[in-house]
Design a protein that fits this description.
This protein is of the alpha+beta class. It has 13 helices and 22 strands.
Amino acid sequence: MLRPHQRVLVACSGGPDSVALLHLLKHLAKGLHIQVFAFHLHHGLRGRSADEDANFVQSLCQKWRIPLALRYEDVKQRAREQKKSLEEAGREARYQHLLQVADKWNIHQIALGHTASDNLETFLMRLVQGASREFLKGIPPVRSIKTPQGREVLLIRPLIALPREAILHHCRAHRLPYRIDPSNSDLRFLRNRIRHRLIPYLNRTLNPGWQKKMLEIISLLNEEDEFIQKQAQKISKRYISGNRLSLSFLRQPYPIQRRVFLLWLQILKVPFHGKTLRKLLQACQSLPERKIWQLSAKWWLMKEGKSLHILPQPEKVQPILLQVPGKVGDYTCTILSPAPHLHLKIQKAKPWEAFLDAGCIRGKIRVRGWKPGDRFYPLGMNAPKKLQDFFVDEKIPSLYRSSVPIITDDEKILWIVGHRLDDRVKVTNQTRKILHLLYHGKGNDEQPAGE
């Protein structure tokens, strides 16, 4: 686990586990030829007690001559802004700051003080929360993680095989001071209820060796999970192509289906809790050719033909009054005079530009989103068409219709941006002035050439 000639960053809360880990690595550093560094995050919780934790770690590192990175994060505010629990927000903050420090100090390994007792508690937590198979496992002793700069560092847990009692014995034997976090006794947290109520009850009522047996089972589950995950990673290459997942992955056994789907979401960094995944994958097989599901507040899943696609939550079009000529927001309006060279440009106009007969426009030009009942005359047609029917024909998902900009004047629709011009404002031989509209916003990956 520990490799020679590495720079190791120890996450130190000031509690017995992390203090014992820092103490052990300090004494092993010379023999292993490693450099030891320390990290502490002040979570902005528990007031004076948290200040004392930070001061304690700082004094300890000064005494032991270990470089320390001391960081601060307002976890309560982070949890509120991200709508997460304090535990989840705190964990994410710790990892974020740890990885930033890892980049700054060119760290190779990050050492965490998790013990066998933590491993057992984590497994029981996931069990009572109804975790699916791929999440029903213990804490991995070693895993790779990427820093913000894209470097791979190892997260290692040198104490993962030792029970908490062994750590406390080490602290007593070496007279190591440590801090006790009062929140570890707060029974509002599930982990604490498992630690202080469930495990003591099981100790009283079960075979004395139940913890050892349970840890052996957790180790076996971890090994099996690692094997299945590697198989899924190999197989997933057949089906995953960027934002697209071929539905043929559903021919695989269900355990592999789950892994391939979740790997795809992980690659795209799309959050998904997975508890409803079986029903979702069944729906992907049985429901019609085109269907959309919401995965989270910001992400949607679309079935189209023989593939699945991930779609971000679109932004609704904000009403804007355009200036002619001029540039407002993502729109540029230019008045042109008819000329022979423009004829070819109009024929080859990109989806994100439009050439309109300025004489056919009435009043002011505005941008808005579509409304129920909207109608227009699609270019080339002499009869009106409902905009909703047009969206269906153009295969624009209902999710994205509110994000399509609609250009109007005081009387009618002029242009469905990116899709179709209204026939009533097309440029003809009788056109005296041409209005050139150019959209620079989202979705425009290809800008048309200038005049």
